[in-house]
Amino acid sequence: MQDNNQVDALKAFKKAVEVDPNHADANRNIGFIAIRFRDYKSAEASFDVALKSEAVKRDVEVFIAMGVAKRGLKKFKEAEEWYKKALEVDKKDPRPWYNLGLLNQEHLTGQDNLEQADIEKLYNVAKEHYGKFIKAAEGDKRYAEAVKDASDRIIIIDDAINTFRVMEQLEKEAKAIQEAAEKAEQERRKRLLELEKQAAGPGWSERDGARGSEGRRGGRQGQGRARRREGRR
User: Which CATH class is domain 1-91?
Assistant: First the structure.
């Protein structure tokens, strides 16, 4: 459905909702169109109304779309719950697995204050979901492109995890080099201090040695002056 057709359809569905605010099919379709335009708030509200209908409560399309809406609103935990509900409605539908993979790989990993171990864990969960999607969608031409994308994403995740390993090893090596350099500097300073003490000798300092030399010179000069005075007498 092209954008112009979607806009016209949206207007028609909204008119139906004006007549009957709880019109399940109209709200359902408003939600789908809102998702296409990334109006996740409107989609969420429309699906909430549509899901009051018993018929819609078994509609896997709505469950998946609600998960997308929640994900777009950064309600990640709720998005995960809706994808899992979709699996309960139809265990054979592979799409919830793909969406769970995306949720973990691209959205949960972008949260603040995550450690590298947390990100790696999410990547591994995403890989698991992609693997289940590929297995469930195998042989279904409708999902051929998505299967290739999921396979590529697994490769990307493996590369990212390997990069984590390399960076972790480099950080350890850099830390070891820094610690070794600091220890070597401490040992160097310690040796210099020992050499200075050995050169000074027990109870001796450069200042004390200078004072002793001046005293000896002064004594000799005084003795010479005394002898000259005695000679003049």
Answer: mainly alpha
